[in-house]
Amino acid sequence: MNRADRPGARTYLRLLGIFYRNSLAEELEYRVNFWANVTLSLFWLVWAAAGARVFFSFTGSVAGWTYHQLLVVMGLFFAMNGLRQAIVAPNLGKMSDYIRLGTLDYLLTKPVDSQFLVSLRHLGIYNWADLLLGFGLAGYGLVRSGSAPGPGELALFAVLIAAAVLLLYSLGFVLQTLTIFAVASEGADDLLRGVLEAGRFPVSFYGGFVRGALTVVVPVAFLTTYPAEALLGRARWTTAALAAAVAAAAFFASAAFWRFSLRYYVGASS
Amino acid sequence: MADLARAYPALLRAGLLQAMAYRAQVVLWLLTSLFPLIMLGAWLSVEREVGAVAGYDAAGFVSYYVTAAVVNHFTVVSASWDWDHDIRTGELSVKLLKPLDPFHIHLTGHLGYKALIGALLLPAITVLAVALPALHYPIRPGVWVIVAAAVASGFLLNLIMASAFAMLAFWSTQVGNLYQIWWGVGFFLSGWIAPLELFPAWFRAVARVLPFRSSLAFPVELALGRLDRLAVAEGFLVTLAWTAAFGAAYRLLWRRGLRHYEAVGS
To answer: Which tens digit of pLDDT belongs to each residue from B105-119?
Structure first.
């Protein structure tokens, strides 16, 4: 294919528009389910906030976090988890079928980037409620803890949350790529959820080697703790720069891993 | 009854084989149940700052959450989703061809998984108990028989409770969600979030008479030597009473629901 034939960014945006209108139409057929999902999300949000309350019946702050500051982290955890369910999980869930049924052969022949097609084709509409509810809880925590982020803090937060989203996407995409070798992808989403689960609380909640492992081995701190610290005016630009570097590295590594793995993909039809 | 006795060995074998076929998923599932360890990490931070809370020091928290994680693997059930799936998709019709109550198929299916999980977890927890000084069980060896009985009866209660709930699937498509909320409330009352001693007295009183504690905090507290004879007897009595109540509800709803199902299906 010539360079000139390569689709540009505008084509990709147009495709995303078509894909997501399609997902929306599919899911809006089941309106009762939509409201049931929103109710459940709200229930789990209150559940999480009430569960964390138990710690604070014994102390005013845990590892330097008050209850309302903790709610900022938990709100962001909810939002990231909603994003995982909306973007990562639907595509990860389809991957097993792509390999088993040979759909991937067909996807690879399309004149657009294969990573784009396998990782962003489907969208879970329901889970956008989690995203909104999560940001709502974080906002409530911010107001109640008496912090009002200024433009500087918001800019830091924007960088850190963008890095967090990119990192989450990359981690999910690595798991998706692993399906080429493992075929079964059912457990992969559970694994990502398990990792993300640790982001429910700030990393300083966990002592000693656990904290080190959570930041270095699995960069959970970048997903929820650091963006929350930015909102609370505790983050520094060096952290944001590091987060951006880690997210970019993770993204390029996951893309490279995908291209590498495709060389080992033999196809269902061959 | 004699027919059931003949069918059980075959059903149990099928349950175990099914679990073996998906053993990779079982291992993955063991790895992903991180929630107790996350709560443990947070409580250890609290303990470092304010000292022991409600009689739980660092070793107490480690023992509680590690034991809770293990007990949970034995008592947790997926029956409400399994039933819901069977009823909604019509797969129940296939199970109805067999000359026994589908409850037994769900029970033996679960036992297969529990056997596999036991084979993985029991050696692991034994090694941990020897290697970790913080993980401490002060009970006499004979008491483990009672702990095993508590775990088994907690599992049975969970299965019967989930099955009774699932019968509502004959009339509604939202049973999975309803059960999720029921179970979410149960996470507090079962001692999954935190040891029940850390909650206010009124909350503990409520938890003691509800069916959730039977499958988690009761066996755990028993293994940690925190219960006297009276409390143990009370725990078993509560478990038994709820098992009977949900069992009766299951029978009633199953008969009614089946008539409804046939009416819809034909």
So the answer is: 888 888 888 888 888
Q: What is the ipTM for the molecules in this complex?
A: 0.81
Nearest CA in chain B to A47: B184
Query: Tens digit of pLDDT for each residue in B121-132?
Result: 889 888 888 888
SS (H, E, C) B48-113: HHHCCECCECHHHHHHHHHHHHHHHHHHCCCHHHHHHHHHHHCCHHHHHCCCCCHHHHHHHHHHHH
The token pair that represents B20 in the structure block: 């073996």
User: Is residue A226 within 8 Å of residue A245, measured between CB atoms?
Assistant: no
A217 to chain B, any CB pair closer than 8 A? The answer is no
CA distance B124 to B118: 10
- Which 3 state secondary structure label does DSSP give A66? strand
Stated pTM of the model = 0.85
Provide the token pair at A269. 């039809």
Kindly list the residues of chain B whose beta carbon comes within 8 Å of any beta carbon in chain A.
24-25, 28-29, 31-35, 38, 41-46, 48-50, 53, 173-174, 177, 180-181, 184, 187-188, 193-194, 198-200
Nearest Cα of chain B lies from the Cα of A63 at a distance, in angstroms, of 7
